[in-house]
Amino acid sequence: MYSDTHFHFVKMCEGDESRGADFFKDAAAYNLFFMMDIGTKCDDLAARISFVEKSLSLLGDANLEPDVRRSLFFTAGIWPSAEEIRDREKCVRELESQIVTFQDNSRGFHKLAAIGECGLDHHWNKAGVDSRDEADFDKDTLEGERELFIMQMALARKLNLPVVVHSRDAFEDTISCMDEADFGHGIVHCYSYGKDEAKAFLDRGWHIALGGAVTYTKKRNMDAMADLIRFIPEDRLLLETDAPYLAPVPMRGKPNTPLYIRHTYEFIAGIRGVTVEDLCRTVDDNCGSLFKVAMAH
Fold first, then answer.
1. Helix, strand or coil, per DSSP, at residue 101
2. Which of 170, 163, 82 is nearest to 120 (CA)?
3. pTM, full prediction
4. Using CA atoms, how far apart are residues 286 and 273, in angstroms rounded to an integer?
5. Euclidean distance between CA atoms 256 and 24, whole angstroms
6. CA nearest neighbour of 281 among 39, 2, 84, 90
7. Beta pairing class for 32-37 and 72-76
8. What are the residues facing 119 on neighbouring strands?
C-alpha cells in the first residue's frame, strides 16, 4: 500500500468538491494507505476540513467513507510568506486557536498529525508559483522568517506533534533554527539537498521525505542522487507527492496527484535494491511510528 506524506487537497482539486469525491473513489481503489493534507496558512484548517466533508458527501458510496477517513490526516502550519512573517505573533496565536478548536470538535472524524508546513525558503523567483522576491526579504524579514519557524517548532513541542519542514535554498539557516529550538522531530519535506546535508538532518532526528523531483535527476547527477537515496536509513525514509506540484516522470508536466506516487516508489525501490512492496511496508511503518497511528497491512 502506498503512503503520501504531503499533498495539498484543495489546490489539487482546484476547489471542486466533485473532483475531490472522484479522487477519494480512485484512492480507495488504488489502495492509498496514508495521505496527509498539508496546511500553509494560519487559518486554513477549518476550510480544508469543510472541503473534505463536502467531497465525502458526494461519494455516493457509504462503504468508502470509513476507508477514506481512516487514511486521511491533516497538518496545520504557516508557510513563510512575507505577509505572515510580518504578522507572525498574531498568526501563530491564530494557528494554535484553530488547532485547539479542531481538537475540541473533531470527534475522531479527522486526525491532526503534525504542525506545518513551515520553515525557510530562499529560492528567489518572482515568476514562480510561490512568487518569491528577494527585494521583499530584508534583514528584518529574514530574521522574522526564522522566528516564525522557531515559534512553530515550539508550538509542536507544546502539542507533542512532529513538524513538516519546508527548506529550500536555506540549509544552514534551517539547521541553525532547529538547533536554536532544540527540536528534531518530523519531516524535511521534498528533500532537495545532498548527502552531507541529509546526515546533518538525520543526526538531529529528522525523517527525510523524497518526492517526484528525484525522478528528474540528470544523468550526470545520477550517481550522487543514488548515493543519497541509499544513504537514508530505512527507518527515516518517507515518500510524498507535494501534489498538485512536481509530478514524477513519466507524468512530469501534468498536475500531480497521490495516484502518481507509485512512479516515485518504483524509482526509489530500484535504486535501493528492494521490491516496491517492501518499500511500501517500510514507508507505511515509518508513517505509523512518526504520526502515532495504528498501521495494518
1. helix
2. 170
3. 0.95
4. 19
5. 15
6. 2
7. parallel
8. 166
DSSP-derived secondary structure for 234-283:
GGGEEE---BTS-PPTTSTTSPP-GGGHHHHHHHHHHHHT--HHHHHHHH
- Which three cell numbers, joined as nine digits, stand for 135? 527585494
- What does each C-alpha distance from 258 to 9, 40, 251, 275 come to in angstroms? 10, 18, 12, 20
Of 207, 213, 241, 240, nearest to 225 by C-alpha is: 213
**Residue 220 burial (10 A CB sphere; 0-12, 13-18, 19+):** exposed
One-letter amino acid of 239: L
Mean pLDDT of 38-45: 98
Write out the three cell numbers for 82.
512575507
Weakest mean pLDDT among 112-126, 171-185, 199-213, 273-287: 112-126
> How confident is the model over 263-274, as pLDDT tens digits?
999 999 999 999
Q: Dihedral sign, CA of 68, 256, 231, 124?
A: negative
Query: What's the pLDDT at 297?
Result: 47
Query: Does a cis peptide bond (omega within 30 degrees of 0) precede residue 94?
Result: no
